[in-house]
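Open question from group meeting: does this chain pack into something compact, or does most of it stay loose? Before anyone orders reagents, we agreed to write out a predicted structure and look at it together. Recording both the input and the output here so the notebook holds the full record.
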Amino acid sequence: MMLPPRYGKLYRKLPPAAWLLTGVLLIFIILSGFTNLNVVLGRVWLEQQPLQPVDALVILGGGVNQDTGVLSFKTEERVRTGAELFLKNKIAPVVVVTGGKVGANPYAEAPAMSKLLQQLGVKENYILQDDQAQNTLENATNVVTMGRKLGWKSVIVLTSDFHTSRACTFFRNAGAPPVTCRAADRSTVTQGSPLRRWQSTKGVLREYVANCYYWLIGKR
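Structure tokens returned:
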């Protein structure tokens, strides 16, 4: 098929570097959607310690749909893992869900997380909510303040694997008691579709940017 003249001229004008970059981007997009590239990239930031009994299991929010209020699959993954730890492992006497209305989103994360926990069998009186945090730094600050009032001596911070390092660093810097980092179990939510793999890759890339930013401003 012949290209229209204007596109043919553009084709001839593009330098080799532009074609190379385009090819690399296409390969990256394909790998992101059809392989476990996001898992490999995310392991760079994975921090995980052995499970042990603590005073509170803290689950960090990871997004909620601003049109429907439905949890993102990454947040669902964290909540499902947390419910299993709480119900089967009996790892803590309370579960804390933290996440507010981020940006222009009219839905807070914590209430939706609490609702799913209850659907999974966790009784409401065992759930504490922080529905004010706008980001990971505020997750840490708000929960540490809550913990001081309640006299917690140890906590588990549960989040996505690629988010564990930064999240636990923020909790420690905020003055949290001994922190055990745990990564959500990816197998609790189906990961296999290209869309979800691509969304996971975007999350990992965003984490790389966030880590660089917080290093630059001295918070990491």
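Observations to bring back to the group:
The helical segments are 5-13, 16-34, 37-42, 73-89, 109-119, 136-150, 164-173, 194-216.
The two ends are 54 Å apart (CA to CA).
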